[in-house]
Q: What sequence folds into this?
């Protein structure tokens, strides 16, 4: 059982370049999330999705876009990378609140370490 | 408003010692979770707490959901070298708040265990 898989694991970009981070989960989870983790800070939510075809902004959405065309995949895009976006990015997924009638723990991938030069 | 204050920021202990860390907030949370993160990996769920006052154990780990729903603590007994890592608390807002299963994270406690 792979759980949550993120690709790539590492990437170095130049300022202004674009790229897409891929997250795939095989747990049939309805909800998916993208976070960034910076030194000395907890994880901060960038965007999330509560179902196929739906996305919403989190705490720090600026400079990022997302898409959820398939239930199992959640893509995070950087249209024009900036040095401030150097970070470790984590994807997570969970069952829906409606399905289980309560909050559900989120399960995380191993992260993508992104450096913007 | 919904920030979590996690303490201590770091701990250096001797193998065999007990460890205690906690999270507090000015906001009420419906669920408290504790995660551990090893270098180069994502956070892994250790314990989830769903009811105020709940005390739950997972091996040498014990966590409690505060009665006020604004705090939680995690204890690790008889620490071993593999306990090294960063421990994060996370609080989930009530399910009816915005229905996205939203979580807020503490900044983490970095644990070092000396053999």
A:
């Amino acid at each position: 059982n792979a759980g949550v898989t993120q690709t790539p694991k590492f990437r170095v970009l130049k300022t202004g370049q674009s790229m897409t981070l891929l997250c795939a989960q095989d747990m049939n989870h309805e909800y998916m999330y993208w976070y960034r983790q910076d030194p000395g800070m907890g994880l901060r939510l960038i965007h999330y999705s509560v179902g196929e075809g739906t996305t919403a902004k989190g705490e720090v959405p600026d400079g990022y876009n997302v898409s959820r065309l398939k239930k199992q995949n959640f893509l995070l895009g950087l249209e024009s990378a900036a040095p401030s976006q150097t970070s470790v990015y984590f994807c997570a997924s969970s069952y829906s609140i409606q399905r289980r009638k309560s909050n559900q723990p989120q399960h995380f991938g191993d992260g993508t370490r992104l450096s913007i030069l | 408003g919904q920030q979590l204050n996690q303490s201590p920021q770091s701990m250096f202990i001797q193998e065999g010692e007990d460890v205690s860390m906690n999270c507090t907030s000015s906001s009420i949370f419906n669920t408290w979770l504790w995660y551990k993160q090893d270098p180069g990996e994502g956070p892994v769920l250790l314990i989830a707490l769903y009811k105020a006052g709940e005390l739950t154990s997972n091996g040498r780990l014990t966590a409690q959901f505060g009665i006020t729903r604004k705090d939680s603590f995690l204890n690790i007994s008889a620490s071993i070298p593999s306990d090294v890592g960063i421990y994060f608390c996370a609080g989930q807002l009530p399910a009816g708040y915005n229905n996205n299963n939203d979580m807020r994270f503490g900044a983490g406690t970095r644990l070092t265990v000396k053999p």
Summary: The two ends of chain B are 40 Å apart (CA to CA). The mean pLDDT of chain B is 91.
